[in-house]
Design goal:
Blueprint: E1 27-33, E2 39-48, E3 53-62, E4 69-70, E5 77-82, E6 88-94, E7 99-105, E8 111-113, E9 125-126, E10 132-138, E11 162-163, E12 167-168, E13 174-180, E14 186-188, E15 196-201, E16 207-212, H1 218-221, E17 225-230, E18 239-242, E19 247-253, E20 260-265, E21 274-278, E22 285-287, E23 309-311, E24 316-323, E25 326-333, E26 340-341, E27 349-356, E28 359-366, E29 369-377, E30 382-385, E31 401-407, E32 413-419, E33 428-434, H2 451-458, E34 462-467, H3 476-479, H4 491-503, E35 507-517, H5 519-530, E36 536-540, H6 546-550, H7 556-563, H8 572-578, E37 591-596, H9 604-617, E38 621-626, H10 633-636, H11 639-657
């Protein structure tokens, strides 16, 4: 498989990125502003193809102007956190496969290791007085064992005994720990057959709040709640904050320390994530963002966003929502009120908010950048770009995205982005790329995952990105339009825009390909089993048989109850209607399958059975398995895997549809 260096015939300058440019991309991440607002520490991620590793280093940039400088020389440094006096940065460094907490003296650049836990440590957070660090980590092993019992038999009554990226949960659950900054001494605060997440200090440092799914049937109900621990309580018993029968994720204390701002929903995880004001005293929860009809985004691989951030000086809270495909920041009074957009930029994704006084640092990516660090002054409303990591790309251009709306025959409006060289004329081959989720969304901002988009545009292709029914950012009704109707409700949202572009003379009728990952991989299989429209197909992280997937995916309850309409044994006819495998005998499209070997979100057997069927039917097909890669392989697998994935997409679609 080879890629090209697309050049401008007039100047000889490279025009668009190609797959091989993966080594030239710096991606800033995790900005945290210093307590006095004078500087922002952040992470820069790069891919070292020669060493086949992802490198992460800490950087610092002043907010008042000046160049960014590198702070650390480690290759696995991330999750920076400032001490309250601004003297130290706590961060995670991975050197032996397990991250540990280190402390960096910003003035002297000297770093020392704080924790040496056998199971590693999670992202640190300083206590308000700076004497302790809060983090989550695997629970301490029983004293009688003395060593970690990896590989022991796993016995489980519940369904949550394995998870994508973690595998079978023979390791201990994740629990809250507190480490002494001076001595490194560490104490485990919580314990139990459940995991804690999203922990946060109260303003006075006497309490810790966190989210957990503690109920005996949490694996069935998927319900979770916010809890609080009083560190002065000898028993350290977690007290329910609420909502008891809802869902709870990342959280923050209000400025006065009396209530919690929780990402969740009072009715449970099947509903849009909102921002809740929770009173630990009585467990009541107010849904502050209910009238927005938009999903609060708190951040995950492929899903940008931010934990809510409180601005005590203004009595407000900052949070992110998805709006028309973009992730945008809002502010509102922390006890409720009218939400107000923080930025006017309509073509930028915003994530990783960090607050100091009335200054906000954030990560923003737009049409021409994979991400830069910005600072926003809440008193003036002005934002300033602090970094320019795009310069490492040199003369490489990012393929432009032109937004447009397609009206489907039933009247539904579907937003899309067309990637095409603006100087191109006449019909081109087209790649339809389908996003995952199904409740994710494309937008007009650049991202470093799908480099094949840029190379195909350089090769004279058009790329079409659509937000069909099920996509996030257009209201809960639109997002839930595919519930119990995967494939059967959104097929027209993909096929009809193709016909419109063909009729406009932009696309070659006989040279249309389709690809997608996760839900996009599922839909690639579904479309090729119900239509002969495509000359080539590449499915990544696919699901081909919903019935077998319902019993084997680690996300089975969420998928079967919220997405597929109920248990597979209770609605076999609908499962068959939604399953690509039902009509696999009708597939004629040459199909490449790309799948992580350790994927348990969309288990590998889903790709294997599709490949087996196509091979026996005489359809041109290949399967590529990436050993040990999880479902999130497009974000966290080794660089050679991600480059290989991108290159194989280009090679397959140009071979059969180019």
């Amino acid at each position: 498989m080879s890629s090209i260096q697309a050049t401008d015939e007039r100047t000889g300058v490279n025009r668009y990125l190609t797959v091989d440019d993966i080594r030239r991309i710096d991606v800033p991440k995790q900005p945290v502003i210093s307590p006095d607002g004078s500087a922002v520490a952040y992470v820069v991620q790069t891919d070292d193809l020669d060493a086949d590793r992802v490198e992460q280093t800490l950087w610092l940039v002043p907010t008042g102007g000046g160049n960014a400088r590198r702070l650390t020389d480690g290759v696995g440094d991330c999750a920076p956190a400032w001490s309250p006096d601004g003297r130290l940065l706590a961060f995670l460094r991975t050197t032996d496969g397990r991250p540990q907490i280190w402390l960096l003296d910003v003035g002297t650049s000297e770093a020392r290791q704080l924790t040496r836990r056998p199971g590693g440590a999670g992202a640190p957070a300083f206590s308000p007085d700076g004497s302790r660090l809060l983090f989550t980590a695997p629970a301490d092993p029983p004293e009688s064992e003395g060593t970690w019992a990896w590989g022991a038999p796993v016995v489980s009554r519940r369904l949550d005994y394995y998870a994508d990226g973690a595998g079978v949960l023979s390791a201990p659950r994740q629990h809250i720990h507190v480490a002494d900054v001076g001595t490194g001494g560490c104490e485990q605060i919580t314990a139990g057959e459940w995991s804690a997440s999203g922990a946060a200090w109260s303003a006075d440092g006497t309490r810790i709040a966190f989210s957990a799914a503690m109920s005996a049937d949490a694996d069935l109900t998927r319900q979770s709640a916010a809890y609080a621990i009083d560190l002065g309580d000898p028993g350290r018993v977690p007290r329910l904050a609420g909502p008891e029968s809802g869902s709870a994720g990342p959280l923050a204390w209000t400025g006065d320390g009396t209530r919690l701002l929780v990402c969740g929903h009072p009715e449970g995880p099947a509903r849009f994530t909102g921002l809740l004001l929770v009173d630990p005293a009585d467990g009541t929860a107010r849904h502050l963002t209910e009238q927005m009809d938009r999903q609060v985004m708190y951040g995950a691989p492929g899903y940008p966003g931010s934990t809510p951030r409180v601005v005590p000086q203004l009595g407000t809270v900052l949070f992110c929502v998805r709006e028309g495909g973009y992730v945008v920041p809002y502010t509102m009074p922390e006890t409720g009120g009218t939400p107000t957009a923080l930025l006017a930029a309509p073509d930028q994704n915003v994530s990783s908010l960090s607050v100091a006084g009335t200054l906000v640092a954030f990560l923003g990516n737009g049409p021409d950048t994979f991400g830069e660090i910005y600072v926003l002054d809440l008193t003036t409303g002005t934002s300033t770009q602090l970094t320019n990591h795009r310069e490492r790309l040199g003369d490489r251009r990012l393929a432009p995205r032109a937004e447009r709306t397609f009206t489907i025959s039933d009247g539904t409006a579907v937003t899309g982005w067309v990637m095409r060289d603006p100087d191109a004329t006449g019909p081109q081959p087209l790649l339809l790329d389908i996003h995952g989720g199904p409740h994710n969304a494309w937008n007009g901002a650049a991202e470093a995952v799908h480099l094949y988009h840029h190379e195909l545009v350089a090769r004279g292709w058009t790329v079409l990105l659509l937000n069909p029914r099920g996509s996030d950012g257009y209201g809960e009704e639109f997002a839930r339009a595919v519930s119990g109707r995967w494939g059967t409700s959104d097929t027209a949202d993909f096929l009809e825009p193709l016909e419109e572009l063909v009729a406009e003379g932009l696309v070659d009728n006989n040279r249309i390909a389709v690809t997608g990952y996760s839900y996009g991989g599922y839909m690639t299989c579904y479309l090729t089993s119900r239509s002969d429209r495509f000359a080539a197909a590449v499915g990544g992280g696919v699901i081909s048989d919903l019935r077998s997937a319902a019993g084997t995916t680690d996300n089975r309850r969420a998928l079967s109850t919220s997405e597929w309409g109920g248990a597979f044994w209770a609605d076999a006819e609908n499962y068959a209607a939604m399953s690509p495998i039902t009509h696999v005998a009708d597939v004629r499209t040459p199909t490449l399958l790309l799948h992580g070997g350790a994927d348990v979100r969309c288990p590998l057997d889903q790709a294997r059975q599709w490949h087996t069927a196509l091979r026996e039917l005489g359809v041109q097909t290949e399967i590529v398995i990436y050993p040990e890669a999880s479902h999130n392989m497009l974000f966290n697998s080794p660089p050679r895997f991600r480059r290989d994935y991108n290159a194989r997409v280009v090679d397959w679609v140009t071979r059969y549809a180019g």
